[in-house]
Specification:
The chain has 15 helices and 16 strands. By secondary structure, the chain is of the alpha/beta class. Bound molecules: N-(iminomethyl)-L-glutamic acid and zinc ion. Its EC number is 3.5.2.7.
Length: 411
């Protein structure tokens, strides 16, 4: 199967060679090819170049995209999009003055979602989740990481991870699964933290590894949730079973978590609404990608990750949606990119780099996704006609996507 896109106004994120990630000043540049063609062969980007070199052979499909922009699909490296029901009552509670912490302390928050999920069948959980996945595909996401963590028992965590596996099997979007059993202490273990960590380490992680259900391991390293020492035990147990760490850290407080994660070779540290100068120094030159989740800050009115300061200090940044029922009931990466520009003062070039190449690094899929490079997967966004690509973050409430191609297939 061959598809030729011709008369492309501009292709964004054109990279002749694969690059792992972009940091600091490098993030300012987004390579663009104007008046171009792009050839897809099966699921792969076979060729691209200026229209003057456009091939003329017989192709299965030829699409004229005059006036439109082509870019790689978004890579959303941090989501919780498998969940049961939603939490719109807590949304109203927050409008009426309660904080996220106060809601959690009343038995809401993650424990509220866990109760709902434990009561729901695997089939119904799949049904609810596939609709969210279909929505983000239409919004241009071509690779997505999905966490467990609303089960909090072995049985319910397995249910979540099996649903993620079924989504992987049934949809052309790239999916990676993360085990987040350490999302909150279940009520039964409120005063027995060691007992729950033992359960995670001795039973849950080995059982999940045995079924091959998770590539990554995560924990909510935060005051009132999992301490640095507890998280370290969990991520080291995950590593023994081949799971790499991607950790929720510094959402509300800085308690030394970033240093511990970097020391343990975490692929990413995510949230980072509170970042100290020591955190920046520790991340500098490390292999750990800082991941910002600006639509979480937007939704629950907490500080934004200080991306400007971090990039200016030479760090890379990836952007992800954090799609979940409590702090970010949206997986729309277009809005993530807009919010990063509007609220974090990232330039459109930086934000698009952060949501493509750096997102792919944070999700471990950089070899196949995140840039327009020959041999990578043909997962592409075709926009509506635009004045310039700046209109993507600028027109924050508009849908500027005309067509999505995932692994060579028109969606
Ligand atoms: N902060 C931890 N976990 C999720 C929210 C969980 C919830 O409130 O359901 C997050 O990344 O924001
Ligand atoms: Zn999260």
């Amino acid at each position: 199967m061959t598809i030729l896109l011709k008369n492309i106004k501009e292709i964004l994120q054109v990279r002749n060679q694969h690059i792992d990630k972009l940091e600091g000043q490098e993030m300012k540049t987004l390579p663009v090819l104007e008046n171009a063609f792009l050839l897809i062969e099966n699921d792969i980007i076979k060729d691209f170049g200026p229209m003057s070199d456009c091939p003329t052979a017989d192709f299965d499909e030829v699409i004229d995209v005059t006036g439109k922009t082509v870019l790689p699909t978004w890579v959303d490296s941090h989501t919780h999009l498998v969940y049961a029901g939603n939490r719109e009552l807590e949304f109203v509670d927050r409008i009426n003055g309660l904080s996220y912490e106060e809601i959690f302390n009343r038995g809401g928050g993650i424990l509220n979602s866990a109760k709902k999920l434990q009561e729901l069948s695997e089939e119904e959980l799949y049904e609810q989740s596939r609709k969210r996945l279909e929505e983000v595909i239409q919004q241009g996401t071509g690779a997505v990481e999905i966490k467990s963590g609303y089960g909090l028992t072995l049985e319910a965590e397995l249910k979540m991870l099996r649903v993620i596996k079924k989504l992987k099997d049934n949809y052309p979007i790239e999916i990676k699964a993360t085990f987040l059993g350490a999302h909150a202490f279940p009520t039964a273990y409120k005063d027995n933290h060691k007992g729950y960590i033992d359960l995670l380490v001795d039973e849950m992680i080995p059982a999940i590894a045995k079924e091959g259900l998770a590539e990554y391991v995560d924990a909510f390293l935060e005051t009132g949730y999992f301490s640095c020492e507890e998280t370290e035990r969990i991520i080291q147990a995950g590593q023994k079973h081949g799971m790499i760490a991607k950790v929720h850290v510094n959402q509300f407080t800085a308690i030394g978590g970033i240093e511990m994660c970097v020391k343990n070779g975490a692929l990413s540290v995510d949230h980072l609404e509170i970042v100290t100068d020591e955190d920046i120094a520790v991340l500098k030159g490390s292999k750990t990608m800082p991941v910002a989740l600006p639509t979480c800050s937007f939704f629950i009115s907490i500080p934004y990750t200080p991306a400007r300061k971090m990039i200016d200090a030479g760090l890379p940044i990836a952007l992800a949606s954090d799609s979940n029922p409590g702090t970010t009931p949206s997986g729309n990466m277009n809005f993530v990119v807009s919010t990063a520009c509007i609220k974090m003062r990232m330039t459109p070039e930086e934000a698009i780099n952060a949501a493509t190449i750096n997102g792919a690094y944070a999700m471990g899929v950089g070899q196949d996704y995140g840039s327009i490079t020959k041999g990578k997967k043909a997962s592409l966004i075709i926009t509506k006609p635009l004045h310039s690509f700046y209109e993507l973050p600028y027109a924050f409430g508009s849908n500027n996507i005309e067509q999505v191609i995932l692994n060579g297939k028109l969606q």
